[in-house]
Known about the structure:
Blueprint: H1 2-7, H2 32-36, H3 38-45, H4 56-67
Keywords: NADP, Oxidoreductase
Protein name: NAD(P)-binding Rossmann-fold superfamily protein
InterPro entries: NAD(P)-bd_dom_sf, SDR_fam, TR
Amino acid sequence: MNQLARAACEWAGDMIRVNCVAPGFITTPMLKPxxxxxxFFKQLKLRIPLRRFGEPEEVASVxxxxxxxxxxxxxxx
Length: 77
């Protein structure tokens, strides 16, 4: 997915923007088996700089911002 987003730079001349959001672990019901195993959960959080999992609202706000005209000049690879 990251490579596809990088290749999309070729489309910039046609005013086509491509955004790629690739978050790490997000607290959702699908992650419940991981969070239920306390020892594994503790070890996993040590590998995450903020020492916590993300929340769905945090990803949603980034995606919403990237859809706005205010984000039209953001390039991050």
